[in-house]
Write a structure and sequence with these properties.
The chain has about 325 residues and is of the alpha/beta class. Helices cover about 30% and strands about 20% of the residues. Helix 2 packs parallel to helix 3 and helix 7 crosses helix 8.
């Protein structure tokens, strides 16, 4: 990917459409006011068009075919340094059973995430999609070759991180390929992040590797041209039941021009209200380890009731 650093004067960037990720982030890192988004051929929603209500998005995290709740920052490849995997919960229920539960409760937009590309996890994810066709998004090992197959199995969207944010950098060509294959309207970008030098850096490869892309207004605005939604785990608090990352939620609520779901640290019903306030009613929420269906103390039925209450008060 060619860089334009040193080749283009600031005056000329006013009419430049970035053609590579290097071009894009050179303009961004140099704080040029003419930071351009994708071409107008990709629809770009106004922030004012996003509904003003918070929804609960259920999750099914699958590891080696089993539904588990794992502290994501401890998930490593087998070839890595042997850090012990911290598992908060392992269910005796299948992924399909959880999908049926969410279907019965009328919950849409949930996430089935394969925490590993093993055959057992893939099979469990597909069973969940079959149990609730049109009700779940799917992520984990998604690329331009296999993405359409999950849509055909019943997923509404595919969720992508490491394939696009590759080796610490954003691969714009891979992102464009995904859009060509499944369409912008079926793509969710996972922008899960960790704090680094006071900013939120997108992390990839099971949240172990920092990318050189930091979440801010211009990055969110640019990426919104290629996705239907964002999914953002606050990795520093995810799975630890320590409370939410208020600062991250506020950033997402203020700057995301498309629907966005936050995950990480929810422990009590009060945390749901904090997300509603910090995200100015524009950030959906996923709850994992804290729920009683995943071994926690927060009643799933109470969260579903809260969700119904938010839906009833939706302002279009």
């Amino acid at each position: 990917m060619a860089s334009v650093q040193g080749l283009i004067s600031p005056a000329r960037t006013r009419s430049l459409q970035p053609t590579s990720v290097s071009d894009l982030f050179w303009l961004h890192k140099n704080n040029n006011s003419s930071f351009y988004a994708p071409s107008s051929s990709l629809s770009r929603p106004s922030r004012l068009s996003v509904r003003c209500a918070v929804r609960f998005r259920p999750c099914i995290d699958i590891h080696k075919g089993k539904v588990k709740q794992i502290v994501g920052s401890t998930l490593q490849d087998s070839k890595d340094d042997g850090t012990k995997l911290v598992t908060n919960f392992e269910s005796d229920k299948s992924a399909a059973e959880f999908a049926n539960l969410y279907k019965e409760d009328g919950l849409t937009g949930g996430h089935a995430i394969m925490l590993g590309a093993d055959p057992l996890s893939k099979a469990a994810a597909i069973e969940a999609l079959h149990a609730y066709p049109g009700g779940l998004q799917v992520g984990g090992g998604i690329n331009s070759d296999n993405s359409l197959s999950y849509i055909e199995e019943g997923a509404t969207h595919v969720i992508v991180t490491s394939y696009v944010f590759n080796n610490g950098q954003m691969d714009l060509e891979r992102l464009k390929d995904l859009v060509r294959v499944v369409g912008k309207q079926r793509l969710v970008l996972d922008l899960s992040c960790r704090k680094k030098d006071g900013k939120y850096a997108i992390v990839t490869d099971r949240w172990q590797k920092f990318s050189d892309v930091y979440l801010d207004e211009r990055v969110l605005d640019f990426l919104a041209g290629y996705a239907d939604e964002f999914l953002v785990h606050g990795v520093d608090v995810e799975g630890k039941k320590l409370g939410i990352d208020d600062e991250l939620v506020a950033l997402l609520g203020k700057y995301s021009p498309i629907p966005v779901t936050y995950a990480g640290g929810v422990t009590t019903m009060a945390d749901l209200e904090k997300i509603k306030v910090a995200g100015i009613g524009r950030v959906d929420v996923t709850v994992g380890s804290a729920l009683d269906i995943f071994g926690g103390n927060l009643a799933y039925k109470d969260v579903v009731a809260w969700h119904a209450q938010q839906e009833a008060s939706t302002v279009q």
